[in-house]
Amino acid sequence: MSRSVVLGSAPRCERCRFAPRWCICAGERTVECPLGIDVLIHHREFWRPTSTGRLINRVIPASRGHVFRHDLPLVRESIIEPGRELWILHPLGEPLSAKTAAPPSGRQVLLLDGSWREAARMMRGVERWGRLVSLPMTGPSRYRLREQQGEGNYSTVEALLFLFGVLGLKTAHAALRLQFELHVYAGLLARGEKSAAEQFLTDSPVREAFPELVAELNRRRPRE
Q1: Which pTM was predicted?
Q2: d(CA 48, CA 2)
């Protein structure tokens, strides 16, 4: 059985939230995108190293993060950008395709980051703010850090990747996918799941893109 090699009380990088041994900040690259991107992060999700909502905010400088708490009302004006049409991504929304999607400029997407139950709670608070849309998401999830609840369920960053695909944002898609896969790879190593991490690399662009960082993450330490 694999085990985490990071203690709960161990110091963590303030940016990527991994322990210094598994810090991936050396591989961080900026992702540029014309789409307005906001992430509503459940407060329980905010400090989890596995959060892909915080990953989005780290690598897409123009994106914004907002923390959701049950005891604090959401303020519409703090999220809605004037002059942009708001899309709220959720499986219950109307299907969005390349034919029905408008150009990304002038659009804003709101992503809900949390467990499925938490996301449902957040959705009820914002669903009247804009257009609720769903995406044609197919194939297995690459988010190996959590047990996805059923086929067709994906992480927050994967939902954004599918949206980039629908909108034809190929450069942003490739750049964000690389950051996401590096995040998953380091997370597997931090849990002591070295075999799973190596298997993950077999069909990932991470090894080719970051050969020195991959080697550093795998360098044996005296206490290992």
Answers
A1: 0.89
A2: 19
